[in-house]
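If you are new to this repository, start here. Below is one unmodified record pulled from the training split, so you can see the exact layout before writing a loader.
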Amino acid sequence: MNVQDYLSNRNIPFDSIDHTPTYTAQTLAQAVHVAGQEVAKTVLLAVDDGYLVAVLPATHEIDLLSVAAYLGATRVDLASEDECGQRFADCELGVIPPFGSEYGLRTIVDRSLLEDKYIVFEGNTHHEAIRMKCDDYIAMEDPILHNFARHV
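And here is the target side for that same chain:
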């Protein structure tokens, strides 16, 4: 999936921001000059016998026990780099777009991400960011909304 094409084909307004390569959500925030709260960090979670895409602000970390309790799961772990690479083979290794639905996966979004009008996230590479309205993202993805992250 090409994120720019995906959004363009659905007539969703967005900005593409080229920047120096970054490998964490916090350094992405610095590179594109936005608050870390506005940057959506996307993580692949291994949940029981499947996977789930989790999206949270760059300034937060996942409470895996909270996700497990909310889902009624017996096991929730961070997926390995190999698992991420296999599921998101059309992206640079380590890049996970926040559109789990396009990969046959459910997406869970931490409610704290909804506090800003816009979100910024990696496109398909470590040097391209996408900025779009948070409301458009939620309407497109229809994620599970839950408080599962804590500020670090």
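Two things worth knowing about this chain: The mean pLDDT is 95. The first helix runs from residue 3 to 9.
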